[in-house]
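Comment thread on ticket #2218

A.B. wrote:
> Attaching the input chain for the structure job we discussed in standup.
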Amino acid sequence: MKKTLLRGLFNVLPLVLSIWLFWSLFESLDEVGNFLFGLVHITELFKGAGFLLILILLFVAGLLFSVSPIAWLYDFVIRQLMRFPFFKTVYSSINDIASLMSSDNKNKNQQTVLVHQANNTYIVGFIMANETPEPLSNALPDGDWVPVLFPLSYQIAGITTLVKREDLTIVDWSFEDAMRYNLTAGISVSAKDKEEKEKEKEKEKQTTDHATNEQK
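C.D. wrote:
> Ran it. Output below, let me know if you need it in another format.
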């Protein structure tokens, strides 16, 4: 009974927490949108109207930032605000996380690699950029050095190590699947892997059933 209860908990908990997280985000954005409606003396139209308003404003902002004068003006304002140390620290941290999550800023050259260790073991890492900053290049011995990220389990942060490209083993593995594997130490597998395993089990079951029917 205990195992059955835990199995139900571990299967239902991720779904419940995910729904709760997205619902909380929806409620928060909806409240902000309704506050903006209130500034122009518009009462709540329907549930979710504030959320739709925020989405529309974000879409309009995206269009505006594609216009050079608007983008230049925004950059100018940010540069002025960056003169304040506290603002610079907070803004830079949030901006780095947003850039990491943005699909527009994803490095198409991200590669999954294996790095050989001294004790004849390998560690999974990721080439995040093809160039090393000039100060580091000047300090390092001659060679083609690239920054390799070794993420820490269940954390955004990780250890960045500079490794010679010739010492890396390129792996034909998608960044998302390899990152998921690394963060969970192999506990989590991709949906594609699960689907393939289920198909294999189903195929084996059909083969076994067919063999059993022929024997009968």
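A.B. wrote:
> Thanks. Noting for the ticket: The mean pLDDT is 77.
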